[in-house]
User: What shape does this take?
Amino acid sequence: LVNNAGIIRDNLVFKMTDRDFDSVIGVHLRGAFLMARAVQRHQTAAGWGRTVNLSSSAALGNRGQSNYSSAKAGLMGLTKTLAIELGPFGVTVNCVAPGFIATEMTEATAERMGITFEEFTERYAKTIPVRRGGRPEDIAQAVSFFVREEAGFVNGQILYVAGGPKG
Assistant: This one.
């Protein structure tokens, strides 16, 4: 299971509506919980399974994203708890926490800010030690490691795929 569903409803806390806060928490955190609960029955019955939750470096805090940051931090806690609960049944649960990744979601953020995606990407790249934004395939490689048979002793881990140290 790879929990990767997500939406954004960015706003400063004093402007954020209850609905926008709840929507983001619902999709990211509640959605991952519901999927994990449903799938774990099959994983534990088989005596083997892999779950990977997609969090974000925004879990460490990000201006205008109290809902998103909270949901992503919650996914880290969910990952650790599920790893403890499901590990004895041959199921590992890990988490990938991307930094800046060039996606449609980040492209929409640039548009909302009134700048080109190229400008947006260049700004972020200057703050990243490897001096580039991430690509979806960077995240796919991390996920593919966690779901392998050979990763059976890796459980409850948060892997930041962010081009440099986080947290």
Remarks:
- The chain is about 50% helix and 10% strand.
- The chain has a mean pLDDT of 96.
- The radius of gyration is 16 Å.
